[in-house]
Amino acid sequence: MLAAPPALADSPPADGVPAFLSDVSGPDALAWVRRQNQHTFDTLQDDSRYHAFYDAVLAVEQDRHRIPKPTFLAGRIYNLWQDDQHPRGIWRESDVSSFVVATPRWTTRLDVDALARLEHRDWVFQGAECLTPDDRPCFVRLSEGGEDAASLREFDLSTGRFVPGGFVLPRSKQSAVWLDRDTLLVARDWGGAAEGSMTESGYPFIVRRLRRGQELDKAEEVMRGRRTDVAVDPMVLTDGAGHRLVLIRRAVTFFEEQYSRLTAQGVQKIDLPTRLELHGLLRGRLVLSVNQDWTPAGGKPIPAGSLVSVDPTGAAPPQIIFTPNARQSIDEVAVTGDGVVMTVLDTVRGQAWVFRPPTGGTQGWTGTRLPLPDMISVHVVDADRRSGRAFLSVSGFLTPSQLWLADTTAVSVRKIMELPPQFDAAGLTVDQSWAVSTDGTRVPYFVVHRKDMRLDGTNPTLLTAYGGFQVSSVPDYNPEFGRLWMARGGVYVVANIRGGGEFGPAWHEAGRGVHRQRVFDDFAAVARDLEKRGVTSAARLGIRGRSNGGLLMGVEFTQHPELWSAVIIGVPLLDMEHYETMAAGASWVGEYGSMNVPDQRAFLQRISPLRALHAGAGYPEPFIFTSTRDDRVGPVHARRFAARLQALGVPFLYYEDTEGGHSGTVNAPEIAHERALEAVYLSRRLMDAGPAAIR
C-alpha cells in the first residue's frame, strides 16, 4: 500500500472537506495544494521510469518536425510555434504559396516568451481577430496562465508591434469584433452597473459599441440579454463574394441560441431554430447545422442533424445541404470562399466531403466525398474565406498526423505534410467492437492492441471516453499515449458512449440530463465486455477522462470500484450538488440539470461522486489532476473530492498545476511532467507484478 497523503492543515468538518479549499487562490488552499503535490512528486518521481517517460513526452512536444497548425489571416498563413527555445511560443506568418508546398518561409510577428519576460506576466497566446480577410486592423488575445479570461490589444501585423494608442481591453471573459477600422463591438464585464454585466455562468450579456479613444464606460449599448443566459456575443461573418453580416448571438442555455442581425435600423431577430450550430456565410446565406427537427415558416420539415443554408433576411426558403443517415453524424464544418468542407462520422470512422451551392440551372447542392484513408479521424483545421482552400488534419490511432489541403473550387484534396511515426506501432492493430448496455443499446468501441494479444485477461488496458455535450471520441493519433502505453504493451480502448455526438443529436439526447445514467451504464458495459472477451480483467484495467470525462471517471469510481485498478480523474466536475455555483457551472444546466428542479435535484444528488463517497467501499487509489488557473470548471471540485478521500482514509494521488487553465498545461515541460506522473501511476497499478496487491 502506498503511503497516505499528508494530513490536512486544520480539523476538517464532518464530511472531511475544509471550507478554505473553496478559496481558489487563498493561502491556506495553496499551502494544501503544495503539500498534496509534493506527496505525489515524492511518490511517483522517485520511480526509475519517471525520467524516461518525461524525456519521451518532451521529445514529442518539442519535436521540430511537428506539423505547424495553420490559420488563414489577412491573406497569409499564421501559426503559433512552441519548442525548447520558445515554451510559450512565437506567433509567426508565412505566405500561402510556400506553405502549401511544405516549404514555408516564416517571419516572427510576436514572441510571446519575450513579451512575458518584458511585462513580468504569465502570458498565453489565444489567437487574433482581423477586420476582414483582406484588411489588417487586428487585435490579439492574451491570457494570464491559460485561463479563459483574456486581455485584448490592437496589433499591427505588418510591423509585429502593438499599435500605440490602439484598442486595449483589460482582462475579462470577453469577445470583440471589428465593425470598422475605428469601432469594435464588445461583450465583456463592463463594471459599474448595479445589476452587473456578467451572467450567472460568468460570461458577458451586454454588447456595446466601442469607438477608438473612447473610455469603456462611455461605450454605447447595442443589446443586452439576461443574467440567466449563458452568454451574449457579437459576431461578424464575411464571405468570398463580399457580403458582411454583423450578428449578436444570445446563448439562452448551453444548447439553445438566438441570433439577431445588427442593421442600420437596429437589432433584428433572425427566424432560426434554437438548437443549432452556426458555421459561416456563403453567398450571403448562413450555413448551419440543426440539432432539432425544424419546420421553417412556410417550408418543408428539416430533420435534426442536417446541414442547411438559410437566407438571414427570410426572403428565400432554407436549402438542405446534407442529411446524415442513421449511422452517420456531421462532425465539423468549415465555409470557404465558394463552398463547404464537412467532416462526417460514419460508424465513428472519419470522412470528408465538399459541397457546392446551386449554380445556373442546378436545383440543389452537390456533394462529393474526398478520397481519404479509412479507420481515421478527419478534423477541419481552418478555411480561407478568400478562396476555396481549407486545411484538414488526418490521423488514426496508428496513422501519424497528416495535413491535407482541400479545395472546394476544384473539388479536390491532396496531402501536403506528414509526420514520420512518433512511436513504434509495429505489431499493433485496431479493432472496432460493440458492447450491449443495460437497456439493450449497442455501444461501439475501438481497441488498439498487439496483433498477438492473448485473450487471457492479463493485458494491461486503459479505457477512456467523454460522453457529453455532443462531442465525439474519434481515432486520433496520440504519440504520448503511443510511447508511454501502447508501445510498451498496453491496450488502449476508446468507448463511443451515449451523450456524445457519434451518431448525431439523438445519441447526445439519450444521455442528457436525468438520462445520464445511460452514459455511465454504457461505459461500464464496455468494461465488462472487455473482461468477457478476455482482453483484460479488473486487476489490469484502468480508466482515464478529463472535464466532463472527469465526471464520468468520478461516477465510475464510486458506482463500480470493483471494475478497475487505476482511475485518472482530470480537471473534473465532482460536486454535482454545487456545480451550478462554481466557476462557469451554471452554463451547463442544459447538459446536467439543475438542483432547483426537484427530479433533477434528486438525480444530481444520486450521481454526484463527492456525495457518493463512503467508507469501506474498496476504492482503488485514484490519480486526480486539476489546475489552479482553471476558470471554467475550477479546481474546487477536485480539491473537495481529494479531501473527502483523505477523511475516509482512502489513499489518493493529487496534482494541481498552477498554470494552464481548463484546456491543459501550456508549455512542453509541464505537459511532460504531468504525463510522466500519469505513466508511472498506470505502470505501477496495471503493468507491474501483482497490481491487485496494491489495491
Distinctive features:
globular; five-stranded antiparallel sheet; alpha+beta; Rossmann fold; 14 helices; single chain; disordered C terminus; 695 residues; eight-stranded mixed sheet
Instruction: Characterize the largest beta sheet: strand count, sense, and whether it forms a barrel.
Output: 8 strands, mixed
Helix and strand content put the structural class at alpha+beta
Q: Give the overall shape, derived from the CA principal axes.
A: globular
Beta-sheet strand percentage? 25-35%
| Rg over alpha carbons | 25 Å
- Fraction in helix: 10-25%
Q: What's the overall average pLDDT, rounded?
A: 93
CATH class descriptor name of the domain at 19-59 and 422-687: Alpha Beta
Strand order of the largest sheet: 30-31-33-32-34-35-36-37
Oligomer: single chain
Which superfamily, in CATH terms, is the homologous superfamily of the domain at 19-59 and 422-687? Answer: Alpha/Beta hydrolase fold, catalytic domain
Per DSSP E runs of 2 or more residues, the count of β-strands stands at 37
Stated plainly, the CATH topology of the domain at 19-59 and 422-687 is called Rossmann fold
**Unreliable segments of 5+ consecutive residues:** 7-12, 690-695
